[in-house]
Amino acid sequence: MTREAPDVVCFGAAHWDVIARRAAEACGPDTPGRVERRPGGVALNVARALAAAGRRVALAAPLGDDEAGRRLISALSEDGIETEGLLVRGGAPTGSYVAIERADGELLAAVADTAALEALAAAELPLDRFAEARAWFLETNLPVAVIAALAARPSRPALVADAVSPAKAPKLRPVLDRLETLYCNRAEAEAICATGFTAAEPAARALLGLGVARAVVTDGPRAATDAGPRGVTTLRPEAGALRSVTGAGDALLAAHLAATLAGSTPEAALATGLAAARRQAAESSPST
After folding, report:
1. Arithmetic mean of pLDDT, 236-246
2. 3.40.1190.20, 3.90.1150.10, 3.60.15.10, 3.40.190.170: CATH of 8-14+40-92+126-162+237-283
3. Contact call for residues 281 and 244 (beta carbons, < 8 A)
């Protein structure tokens, strides 16, 4: 029996997150707090959220040939994610990301060990297997050559991208006119456009001017914008206290993309994405 093609194939990082949050009363370099270890990586987070939303999803990412990688494969399979695109390889361990947060969830510092992803070559990816998907998702933790190869692939599905960070966002400049949708925050849009913006809406309009078909730009607690062929929609996130910023952007992206695949209007998709980010930021809580 032939397996049904996935709705989305996610290309990028898959690793373990270690999230440490200082206790509210803590100060100094050695403090009490709470620590959580969980599957992470932008592509992995998006894949898990899409699967939870009922979409068929596959993950294409490099893992080390180690116990950490095997545990990750098992966890992803339990989440209903197709794992045949995972590349198990020796020479580099399964990646990890360590973040330290304040008691209020604000990120203090983070370190990413992604040697396996940095060594990834486009020729290793099983692209023929995923040619019938509805969309390919890529993120800028990928090497530049892999991003270029995915964008240049003939007869590929629609290409969706996450800018990830201001430092990595400029990797997308050569492929902007090949993107169906670009997700970024205002700082990442500024890095791509090499100019400043006062809000998400002018940033999204500028990205359209550079060739992006649709741009979804967030701006922290300020209004977010979805701009594209169906017009420009700007909505403000719900206000309130947050527990953690880690993963909120991935949650917004996955919810917005799932809603778009289901036929939602831009306004409904943006509202769904903002609500998902809000839930992620409000509910995330490291525990011992």
Report:
1. 63
2. 3.40.1190.20
3. yes
